[in-house]
């Protein structure tokens, strides 16, 4: 895995504090697509368990996996006691069971492209559901967004993660839906957006940025300079666009 992919453990507590969680509506969207109760679920790249707790608190048995021990330690503080955990990257998973649901929350882009979908299908029961979702956080006010970009630019041109297959942001179907549509292992591909707007203090927004990999991997003096510059252009509170983009697909019974 890349250095950025493995950087989050150093900020596990900040990740838990400043990253927005997921609403009950997400659970409802996934269960409506599944069309029946899910008896077993596996999370890839569980982080501190913000997605896992949404399912586990509604009775879904979950195996939460992550390659980082610090992230899993933080996760165990926040999820119901019945949640199982395993330290493993997606490519290392060799469970002795198949699952009715496999999901990844803001983590799938860190997995290796080669063999991604055949490996994913191997984790699912025939007819089982795969879902990937994330809530990219952006400043709702274009003027504030531009001021932050300009403050960051001398040290960091872009703090996002580009689409793994190059799909542009304006495309109707976003990644990984684009890859799922081409995969022989999955059908019934759907994309759903759960609209969300949040308000953060300037300090909490900087806290959020401190959990973004593009900043984590920078030398500490450079981080401090960027955050100082950004803080100077932020209003006291900021409105955040945090729509949740959900992709759903079903594992084919036969391929």
Summarize the model shown.
With 255 residues, this protein is of the alpha/beta class. The chain contains ten helices and ten strands.
Structure write-up:
The longest helix is centred in the last third of the chain and has 14 residues. The protein is globular, with a radius of gyration of 18 Å. It is an alpha/beta fold and 255 residues long. Strand 2, helix 4 and strand 3 form a beta-alpha-beta unit. It has ten helices and ten strands. The strands form two sheets. It has a seven-stranded mixed sheet, sandwiched between helices. A three-stranded antiparallel sheet has the order 6-9-8. Helix content is 32%, strand content 24%. Helix 1 crosses helix 8 and helix 6 packs antiparallel against helix 10. The chain has a domain of 177 residues: 3-Layer(aba) Sandwich (Rossmann fold). The mean pLDDT is 93.
């Amino acid at each position: 895995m890349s250095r950025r992919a493995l950087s989050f453990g150093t900020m596990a507590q900040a990740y838990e504090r400043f990253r927005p969680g997921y609403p009950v509506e997400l659970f409802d969207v996934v269960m409506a697509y599944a069309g029946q109760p899910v008896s077993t679920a596996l999370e890839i790249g569980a982080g501190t368990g913000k997605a896992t707790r949404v399912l586990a608190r509604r009775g879904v048995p979950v195996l939460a996996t992550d390659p980082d021990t610090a992230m899993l330690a933080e996760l165990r503080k926040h999820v119901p006691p019945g949640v199982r955990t395993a330290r493993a990257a997606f490519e290392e998973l060799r469970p002795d069971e198949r699952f009715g649901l496999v999901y990844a929350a803001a983590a799938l882009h860190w997995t290796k492209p080669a063999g991604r979908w055949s490996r994913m299908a191997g984790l699912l029961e025939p007819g089982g559901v795969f879902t990937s979702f994330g809530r990219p956080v952006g400043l709702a006010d274009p003027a504030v967004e531009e001021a932050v970009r300009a403050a960051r630019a001398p040290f960091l041109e872009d703090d996002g993660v580009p689409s793994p297959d190059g799909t542009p942001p304006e495309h109707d179907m976003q990644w990984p839906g684009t890859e799922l549509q081409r995969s022989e292992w999955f059908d019934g591909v759907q994309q759903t957006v759960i609209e969300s707007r949040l308000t953060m203090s300037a300090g909490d927004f900087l806290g959020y940025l401190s959990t973004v990999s593009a900043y984590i991997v920078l030398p500490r003096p450079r981080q401090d300079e960027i955050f100082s510059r950004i803080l100077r252009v932020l209003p006291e509170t900021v409105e955040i666009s945090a729509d949740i983009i959900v992709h759903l697909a079903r594992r084919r019974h036969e391929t």
